[in-house]
């Protein structure tokens, strides 16, 4: 039977590159592109099928920053699929990133220079806003919309006979210091992106704790630094080209891979000579915090569902 794979944010950047690679690995996949923009998704579908005609490539329209859209897409997926083998939770935003020039220059001449370039720590702030669901946009897009998607898709993901896998696109920018259990949406801070990626790491750990017994496993990955629409919002492409050799050096000098466990993050890396490899990194978190965060998400889910139901009744 064909393996079924769902990829959110498949219309560009990391998601698009991932779809091409997945079809190289298995020509007969059923790949479902979960995109908010149907015409972009149609163009991607046509391009993928042109090079891999044996594959089945379908589209589901979903805006993960809009819960009604997530519910609608989940219903559609449950009608179309018996099961999903892999779900790549990749769609993400970093809105209006601002480079902190002062931090950049002081970092350049400090001992933290490699760390600063590899994690962007202290370098980037963003402007967040509130969505129609009344949530912080970065949190809803990068975390909560995906959380609701997997809650809704549980019947397609939880099978005791053969496991399914969730793979979250996290980031090296996920930092404990930017996350707070009392403000999970990061409404009071200036680094919502970093907070949301740390939240993704926590959520993956909590999913393993709560779902492994039901046949669902979760991992987090960091794609490395890639020149995509997102990174071009921070610096122009030519600056990234100049920075790349520095970033390669960072990857070259990193820690050795550790044994596979749910508290490990997988990082795509490239050597200075251009060969790619995967390395692992233990995440800076503990399982208790992950569980508390998961419980906060369940609470928020109840609240948001009640609000949406009330709104639907009134209209
Ligand atoms: N680039 C890097 O160096 C880097 C490093 C670490 C982690 N990441 C992560 O990699 C993931 C992909 O980012 P990228 O670099 O490939 O950026 P990108 O080219 O901007 O791609 C982002 C993707 O997410 C989709 N998306 C955004 N908001 C959405 C929403 N509300 N609903 C549905 N889809 C939505 C976009 O759709 P549209 O085409 O419609 O905009 C696009 O397909 C993100 O989670 C990002 O945090 C990237």
TrEMBL record:
Give the CC-aspect GO terms: endoplasmic reticulum membrane
EC number of the protein = 1.1.1.210, 1.1.1.270, 1.1.1.62
Q: Which Gene Ontology MF annotations are present? A: 3-beta-hydroxysteroid 3-dehydrogenase (NADP+) activity; 5-alpha-androstane-3-beta,17-beta-diol dehydrogenase (NADP+) activity; estradiol 17-beta-dehydrogenase [NAD(P)+] activity
What reaction is this protein's catalytic activity?
Answer: 4alpha-methyl-5alpha-cholest-7-en-3beta-ol + NADP(+) = 4alpha-methyl-5alpha-cholest-7-en-3-one + NADPH + H(+); 4alpha-methyl-5alpha-cholest-8-en-3-one + NADPH + H(+) = 4alpha-methyl-5alpha-cholest-8-en-3beta-ol + NADP(+); 5alpha-cholest-8-en-3-one + NADPH + H(+) = 5alpha-cholest-8-en-3beta-ol + NADP(+); zymosterone + NADPH + H(+) = zymosterol + NADP(+)
Keyword Transferase part of the UniProt annotation = no
Please give, as recorded in its UniProt entry, the membrane topology of this protein: Single-pass membrane protein
Q: Does the keyword Transmembrane apply?
A: yes
Q: Where in the cell is it found?
A: Endoplasmic reticulum membrane
Biological process (GO) annotations held by this record are: cholesterol biosynthetic process; estrogen biosynthetic process
Pathway assigned in UniProt: Steroid biosynthesis; zymosterol biosynthesis; zymosterol from lanosterol: step 5/6; Steroid biosynthesis; estrogen biosynthesis
Task: List the SUPFAM superfamilies hit by this protein, alphabetically.
Answer: NAD(P)-binding Rossmann-fold domains (SSF51735)
Alphabetically ordered keywords of this record: Endoplasmic reticulum, Glycoprotein, Lipid biosynthesis, Lipid metabolism, Membrane, NAD, NADP, Oxidoreductase, Steroid biosynthesis, Transmembrane, Transmembrane helix
Q: Name one Pfam family in it.
A: adh_short
Q: Which family does this protein fall into? A: Belongs to the short-chain dehydrogenases/reductases (SDR) family. ERG27 subfamily.
Q: How does it assemble?
A: Binds to the short form of prolactin receptor.
Q: What is this protein called?
A: 3-keto-steroid reductase/17-beta-hydroxysteroid dehydrogenase 7
> Per the UniProt entry, what species is this protein from, by scientific name?
Panthera pardus
Lineage in the entry? Eukaryota, Metazoa, Chordata, Craniata, Vertebrata
